[in-house]
Amino acid sequence: MSGLHAPDPLSPQARQLCDAMTAGFPGPGDIRALRAAAASGSGREGPAVASVSDAVAGGVPVRIYDPAPGRSGRPLVVFLHGGGWVMCGLDSHDATCRSLAAAAGAVVVSADYRLAPEHPWPAAPDDALTVLLWARDQSRALGCDPGRVVLAGDSSGGNLAAVTALRAPELVAGQVLFYPPLDAWMESASVETYAEGYFHTAAHMAWYWDQYGGDPEHPHVSPLRAPGLSGLPPALIVLADCDVLRDEGLAYARRLAAASVDCTLQLHPGVFHGFLGLPLPAGAAALGAAAAWVAGAGRTGRPASQA
After folding, report:
1. How many degrees, rounded to 5, is the angle at CA 266 between CA 288 and CA 139?
2. Which of 286, 291, 296 shows the shortest CA–CA distance to 262?
3. What are phi and psi of 51, to 5 degrees?
4. Host H or E run for residue 25
5. Contact, 86 vs 210, CB < 8 A?
6. In whole angstroms, what is the distance from residue 82 CA to residue 203 CA?
7. Strand partners, 54
8. Which residues share a beta bridge with 107?
9. 3-state SS, residue 225
């Protein structure tokens, strides 16, 4: 918890939610308990979407959200869920995907990528790339513009979105990264500042990295360590101020800007990791801003190459 003599950096509403969530969330190490906890917390309902269907994209299960079937030329979002690469899936992020599709007027393809430790790196990023390629191929059939494909993800899914953008920048019109882990070495100051007392602990994050595997120096594990970032698609980076991952997100935004990549940074005060899917004003604001950003993807800045 925060110090007795210092003001709590979380808003009162966020603190109440943080403490309640922390009390019901297992510590790192018990993957069955963590997965059960994640599944039990996936009951939030999102808005109605005209068409929601399950499919298989190159062997990877996906769920497709279409807010207005029959239209064309829309953006298409490949969404990669969070959960430390070890938990969560299509159901846990159903409400978020519904909200994004409805607010952005975009088709959202949510990827059920393989999880660690049963399937360590590079299984998840390979599945993410597979779904991106499938989405590009199917974009016109889905009523979307292949030059307006956006990668999006929260937490570990944000890492996968950043990695996929590094691997196939020419196929992507934009990347939306919600509080992503970007450096497996976890050397930033915010790791120490927010190590405990803000739901997502430094111990949890270190354990997730251990389960995920891969070389911490590899840019497809730690995008912050990529030698060069020029030529990447425009980025929207959304961070929580009270989060162990805050500083690496800030560092990535600085590196993108230095590489002349169009990068928009949104740092939300008074909230903690995972706030996007919580009943907090900052969560609604972040989702609305991301939807507006997605709606403009491919219309300004560097467009993705056409199929």
Report:
1. 50
2. 296
3. -135, 125
4. none
5. no
6. 17
7. 63
8. 76
9. helix
Please name the residues in contact with 276: beta carbons below 8 A apart, sequence gap of 6 or more. 96, 154, 178, 179, 238, 283, 286, 287
Instruction: Give the three-state DSSP class for 83.
Output: coil
Q: Which residue has the tokens 């805050």?
A: 246
What is the amino acid identity at position 62? V
The residue type at 109:
V
Among 66, 49, 151, 152, which residue's Cα sits nearest to residue 106? 66
Q: Mind listing the pLDDT tens digit of every residue in the chain (307 residues)?
A: 444 568 999 999 999 999 999 999 999 999 999 999 999 875 678 999 999 999 999 999 999 999 999 999 999 999 999 999 999 999 999 999 999 999 999 999 999 999 999 999 999 999 999 999 999 999 999 999 999 999 999 999 999 999 999 999 999 999 999 999 999 999 999 999 999 999 999 999 999 999 999 999 999 999 999 999 999 999 999 999 999 999 999 999 999 999 999 999 999 999 999 999 899 999 999 999 999 999 999 874 443 433 3
Q: Which structure tokens are listed for 176? A: 């939306």
For residues 277 and 247, give the distance between their C-alpha atoms in angstroms, rounded to a whole number. Answer: 21
- Structure-block tokens of residue 79: 């969404």
Q: Which residues have a Cβ under 8 Å from the Cβ of 204 and sit 6 or more positions away?
A: 27, 28, 84
Q: Which residues are catalytic?
A: 155, 243, 273
* pTM as predicted: 0.95
How deeply is 4 buried, as exposed, middle or buried, from its count of CB atoms within 10 A (0-12, 13-18, 19+)?
exposed
- Copy the structure tokens of residue 258: 């230095």
Question: What is the Cα gyration radius of the chain?
Answer: 18
Q: Which residue has the tokens 């403490």?
A: 19
d(CA 211, CA 79): 22
Helix (H, G, I), strand (E, B) or coil at 11: coil
Residue 261 has which token pair?
A: 């990549």
- Quote the tokens at residue 53: 């269907």
Residue written as token pair 């297992």: 26
